[in-house]
């Protein structure tokens, strides 16, 4: 039968049929030919070209099968490495990505009878970390690229060096504080805390401490004379990253040696001290009440491990995961989570994808039936397990019974989620 001319409807139909991926069982790996149906496949098996290829296969069956197996292994590992890196992935999902290529090496032409055998082979050879779960086999690629390993090692060394430098800086600050304390003892003065606006100083500014006894440019002979009277000693202490703010407590330190003027000032100082103490007591009283109220306030983060959530982002993967349920495997910095997408239905096998997503793109999942276990995510009982007792769909609230002490609590839908 002559070939259809280019541009005719018949030619367009033939090219459209040849473009898509057809049934794998009607594909001949030796001839690299895809047949459309069973009849065409039978005709191909009786053709002279196919018989010649099979004769070649009989002469070197082991070598040809090893070649096909090697090509399939390379294609699978490249897909896993390039698309997913070192993420934990469902082995079947990676296989579906491999066979999406029309000219891929078919598994029935390799030495592995099934995908399970191939995954176990990868684990024994040390190419991947394999794990069998209720949802199937999972694989994690083991990175062996020398350049990447070198970068990771350099990053590790840099982190260790930063930690060491931070430790040395803390030791230097401690040494400065000890020297300041010794200078106070030598000066024989008393520390008088005077309220000021030092808390409003610019970041990186220096703190001036005035102590009795020494001046910034004084010599030892002058020091001896100064100790008898009232003198000042100026110490400049570095404000290293603001870590010394806690030690200063937002005040300037004026140190004076007791003198004859002290008894005159004592009643005034006593009244000022009493007033300051009363102010501090009132502040402590208010802060204790506010802390009790704050303990029941909701936090701005709510993620928790092993809960079921729903993805509500329409922009993620062009809406592919919109309204899909997922299980939180790991919480990252309180506001992000590593989730594993669940299957959309029992028959479909489209789950297993691992995503890193912000909590703003997720919402809680409410059980449909009473008695199911949930996890409280916010408020006073955050982290506790409970059972669903009653749903109020008009107010979007629910009554929960705590597992620990059978207490009944009423929470909003957004404050709890179904357990995985």
TrEMBL record:
Which keywords, in A-to-Z order, does the entry hold?
Metal-binding, Zinc, Zinc-finger
Gene3D superfamilies, sorted: 2.30.30.140, 2.30.30.30, DNA/RNA-binding protein Kin17, conserved domain (1.10.10.2030)
Ranges in a coiled coil: none
Q: What SMART domains does its record include?
A: Kin17_mid
Please state every residue range assigned to the domain named C2H2-type: 28-50
Q: Which residues form the signal peptide?
A: none
Q: Which Pfam families does this entry report, sorted A to Z?
A: C2H2-zf_KIN17, GPKOW_C, WH_KIN17
Where is the stretch described as Disordered? Answer: 235-295
GO terms for cellular component? nucleus
Q: Which family does it belong to?
A: Belongs to the KIN17 family.
What's the name of the protein?
Answer: C2H2-type domain-containing protein
């Amino acid at each position: 039968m002559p070939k259809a001319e280019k541009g005719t409807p018949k030619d367009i139909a033939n090219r459209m049929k040849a473009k898509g991926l057809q049934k794998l069982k009607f594909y001949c790996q030796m001839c690299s030919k895809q047949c459309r149906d069973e009849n065409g496949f039978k005709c191909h098996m009786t053709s002279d070209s196919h018989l010649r290829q099979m004769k070649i296969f009989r002469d070197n069956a082991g070598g040809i099968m090893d070649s096909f197996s090697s090509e399939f292994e390379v294609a699978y590992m490249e897909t896993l490495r390039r698309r997913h890196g070192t993420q934990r992935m469902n082995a079947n999902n990676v296989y579906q990505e491999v066979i999406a290529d029309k000219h891929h090496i078919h598994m029935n032409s390799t030495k592995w009878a099934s995908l399970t055998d191939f995954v176990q082979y990868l684990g024994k050879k040390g190419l991947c970390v394999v794990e069998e779960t209720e949802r199937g086999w999972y694989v994690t690629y083991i990175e062996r690229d020398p350049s990447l390993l070198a970068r990771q090692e350099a990053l590790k060394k840099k982190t260790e060096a930063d930690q060491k430098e931070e430790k040395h800086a803390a030791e230097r600050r401690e040494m400065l504080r000890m020297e300041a304390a010794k200078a106070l003892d030598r000066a024989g003065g008393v520390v008088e805390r005077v309220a000021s606006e030092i808390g409003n100083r610019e970041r990186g500014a220096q703190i001036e401490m005035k102590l009795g006894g020494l001046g910034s440019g004084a010599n030892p002979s002058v020091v001896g004379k100064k100790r008898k009277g009232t003198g000042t000693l100026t110490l400049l202490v570095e404000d290293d990253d603001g870590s010394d703010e806690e030690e200063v407590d937002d005040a300037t330190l004026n140190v004076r040696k007791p003198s004859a003027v002290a008894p005159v000032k004592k009643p005034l100082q006593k009244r000022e001290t009493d007033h300051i103490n009363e102010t501090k007591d009132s502040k402590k009283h208010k802060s204790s009440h506010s802390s009790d109220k704050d303990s029941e306030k909701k936090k701005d983060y709510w993620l928790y491990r092993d809960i079921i959530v729903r993805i509500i982002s329409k922009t993620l993967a062009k809406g592919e995961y919109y309204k899909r349920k997922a299980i939180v495997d790991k919480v990252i910095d309180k506001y992000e989570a590593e989730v594993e997408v669940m299957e959309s239905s029992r028959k479909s096998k489209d789950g297993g994808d691992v995503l890193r997503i912000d909590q703003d793109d997720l919402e809680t999942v409410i059980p449909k039936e009473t008695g199911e276990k949930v996890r409280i995510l916010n408020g006073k009982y955050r982290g506790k397990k409970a059972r669903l007792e009653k749903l109020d769909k008009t107010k979007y609230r629910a009554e929960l019974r705590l597992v620990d002490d059978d207490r009944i609590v009423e929470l909003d839908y957004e404050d709890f989620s179904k357990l995985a």
